[in-house]
């Protein structure tokens, strides 16, 4: 469980200007174990900064944050936090350290000082879970974007984390790679891992149980993705795209069609439209 | 295919020969010692022994000879150059040929021959190491050989990690260079015409974006490493294990015999 109380963050000031940019302010948030949370927001809204607070890569300048009761300000506890909270980054290339799949998955375990026998076992398990079996000896530059991101996930899974943060991890992938990574997220969630997905894509955010919309360093809206997209305020409409079927549905409603707001995907909307048609 | 896809001198050739199976530490130690003792050779017999040993090495590696010769191509130019200098400027012995102020003398010719031979032996043995050892085994072997010197401040783990990260990123940066070249060509950049200076200058708009992006990559990689709990070599365990077998023992005995042989033959 990740808990934020009144968290704010400023990057240290740049000497010449003396200006201190405030990136996050006054964030109260609890992420429960096993939750599937999506975070959306325009560029510069503080999403990635917040993610980096979650695993102690950055420390809050105001307020407190705890991960399973551990405090990232304590040097002994921050390493345990980083084991528990794994992070998949945006660029698939820049997070792979080693020259083969096996060695890269081992990297985090080696850092933790895990014994060799256990390492071998955990690596096998992680490779199987992300579906990279058979590619153990492959070099990273021979993998596709989606495979690289799954390799990054495997490296984290081997650490037996309780939370995995995807920091725009699908944004540099082609549609096939995206599907692979989204499928991996869903499986992780089903297996009980907390999934935090930072994204620009409304369609991807729909998979989550809860959505947070951030604007200018603050949490602007919070709720299920359907709730948020169905009642878009001006501010949110400007900040993010709305899934196509919801956009269409709301436009049709404004035109006076008697559609409900219950449809959760495009199939259900089509279903409802058919229903209207047959009624005449 | 990319414009930059030329194979590198002594690139690893996967295989399962005795040389491939030797522990990388053995190979590194053997070849470094061998490179030092090449300088013990001073006459036909000693050079003969070294040529024999190197030949056997090439044979045992199972690497096709033409691959080795192709890798040597750029080296031949260097060898010819040094040989040429020796022929012209080492004086002594009988004058064999004289063209105005330039003379070719007996000692010069002999010296050129020996130096070229020595150079060739050094390059071929060096190549044997990289031809039969994957880069990751090589860094691993280096790290372990250097780790006893950690106490006197040799950053063994850091050096090995730096090497392996560079190896990891060479293909990535290569691809990127190719991409930038194409992007600049699409904007009308010309890399093929003009004087050498002009052509070198035309690569500046390739190098600058490449450096900027390399720094950005480095920053992101550092962050990713930190997120995965990296905090230096202390308390780290290793997935890869190295073990000496009787082959390695044999290699060291062989090395000792070569040294003794050289010491004996050089005074004959």
UniProtKB/TrEMBL annotation, chain A:
Is the ATP-binding keyword given for this protein?
yes
Matching Gene3D superfamilies: P-loop containing nucleotide triphosphate hydrolases (3.40.50.300)
Q: InterPro entries of this UniProt entry?
A: AAA+_ATPase, ABC_transporter-like_ATP-bd, ABC_transporter-like_CS, ABC_transpr_CbiO/EcfA_su, ECF_ABC_transporter_ATP-bd, EcfA_1, P-loop_NTPase
Query: What name does this protein carry?
Result: Energy-coupling factor transport system ATP-binding protein
GO molecular-function annotation terms?
A: ATP binding; ATP hydrolysis activity; ATPase-coupled transmembrane transporter activity; cobalt ion transmembrane transporter activity
Q: Where in the cell is it found?
A: Cell membrane
Q: Which family does it belong to?
A: Belongs to the ABC transporter superfamily.
* Organism (species): Marininema mesophilum
Origin: domain of life? Bacteria
TrEMBL record, chain B:
Recorded hits in CDD domains, A to Z, give: EcfT
- Subcellular localization(s) per the UniProt record: Cell membrane
Q: Which GO terms describe its molecular function?
A: transmembrane transporter activity
Name the source's superkingdom: Bacteria
Question: Which InterPro entries does this UniProt record tie to the protein?
Answer: ABC/ECF_trnsptr_transmembrane (IPR003339), EcfT (IPR024919)
Q: What topology does it adopt in the membrane? A: Multi-pass membrane protein
Q: Could you tell me the keywords of this UniProt record?
A: Cell membrane, Membrane, Transmembrane, Transmembrane helix, Transport
The answer to whether the entry has keyword DNA-binding is no
Q: What does this protein do?
A: Transmembrane (T) component of an energy-coupling factor (ECF) ABC-transporter complex. Unlike classic ABC transporters this ECF transporter provides the energy necessary to transport a number of different substrates.
What HAMAP family does the record tag this protein with?
EcfT
Q: How does it assemble?
A: Forms a stable energy-coupling factor (ECF) transporter complex composed of 2 membrane-embedded substrate-binding proteins (S component), 2 ATP-binding proteins (A component) and 2 transmembrane proteins (T component).
Q: Which family does it belong to?
A: Belongs to the energy-coupling factor EcfT family.
Q: What name goes with this protein? A: Energy-coupling factor transporter transmembrane protein EcfT
Q: What species is given as this protein's source?
A: Marininema mesophilum
Tell me the lineage of the source organism. Bacteria, Bacillati, Bacillota, Bacilli, Bacillales
